[in-house]
């Protein structure tokens, strides 16, 4: 992964969705997968990376994260389906 900032979407089988921002996508997704972070993702078992976008500036990433968090569920699901139609876990792709 290149250096930058990421907006990412974690999910489970339903999928229940969580949107976050980070400067280290591999580390952050690993933390979610291992339930190292107390809160929403641990409570609902959100262990699959379903979507992510990369940004050069943290400000742009935060603006995008806030925008996505205000979208309705259907729009979020459609965004994911555009690049990940089977809702597979993208973690292995970012680690390799």
* CATH homologous superfamily designation: GIY-YIG endonuclease
Number of helices: 5
Could you say what the CATH architecture is?
3-Layer(aba) Sandwich
Work out the number of β strands. Answer: 3
CATH topology: GIY-YIG endonuclease
Estimate the mean pLDDT confidence.
95
In which order are the strands of the major sheet placed? Answer: 2-1-3
Name the CATH class: Alpha Beta
Tell the overall outline: globular
The fraction of residues assigned to DSSP E strands is: 15-25%
The percent range for helix content is 40-55%
Low-confidence stretches: none
Q: N- to C-terminal separation?
A: 9 Å
- Counting structural domains, the number is 1
Q: Rg to the nearest angstrom?
A: 12 Å
> What is the N-to-C order of secondary-structure elements (H for helix, E for strand)?
EEHHEHHH
Largest sheet descriptor: 3 strands, antiparallel
């Amino acid at each position: 992964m290149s250096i930058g900032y990421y907006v990412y979407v974690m999910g489970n089988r339903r999928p229940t969705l969580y949107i976050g921002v980070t400067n280290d996508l591999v580390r952050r997704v690993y933390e979610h997968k291992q339930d190292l972070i107390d809160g929403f993702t641990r409570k609902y078992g959100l262990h699959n990376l379903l979507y992510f976008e990369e940004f050069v500036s943290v400000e742009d990433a935060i603006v995008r994260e806030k925008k996505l968090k205000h979208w309705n569920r259907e729009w979020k699901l459609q965004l994911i389906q555009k690049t990940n139609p089977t809702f597979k876990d993208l973690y292995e792709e970012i680690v390799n």
